[in-house]
Amino acid sequence: MSYEIKAYEPEMEAQVVALSLEAWAPVFEKLEPAVPGYVYHAFYPDGWRDRQTADVLQVLRTEGEHVLVAVDAGAVIGWVGLRLHPKDRMGEIYILAVDPAHQRRGVAGVLMDRAMAEMRRAGLEMVMVETGDDPGHAPSRATYESAGFERWPVARYFRRLP
């Protein structure tokens, strides 16, 4: 492993946002045709990039103490945001992205391992991660399943109001 995992620092913000948008572009290309248009446009009225940028910035600026980054030669190549839910004795891998140039090289796995180590240190007993069931999220599901996560049966339904 030529990169290091370290705590997020605010000066990394632009790199984290940029790599996230690049990593998620293929996901959203496949997501839009897979869901009803009224649902997609309700979540992303100004486009997915604006919404995801705002969401990433929110995490970094309000929960940055729970963000770990993978850094290679001074460049951020991946990151994970975790949340702790002590009442449920559960940790959550809330957000995860790896620069496409570094995907499929184990970066996501190392980030998840470090996040889970933090959760164990906090006395938590399990970890949860959520992702989409659409074609664009297939690589994410494969990553989580190969890391030993078990799928929880969930159904989410939408209906346009008449």
TrEMBL record:
Return the Pfam families for the record: Acetyltransf_1 (PF00583)
Q: What name does the UniProt record give this protein?
A: GNAT family N-acetyltransferase
Q: Which GO terms describe its molecular function?
A: acyltransferase activity, transferring groups other than amino-acyl groups
Q: Is Transferase a UniProt keyword of this protein? A: yes
* Alphabetical keyword list: Acyltransferase, Transferase
* Domain N-acetyltransferase intervals: 3-162
Q: What InterPro entries would the database entry show?
A: Acyl_CoA_acyltransferase (IPR016181), Bact_Acetyltransf (IPR050832), GNAT_dom (IPR000182)
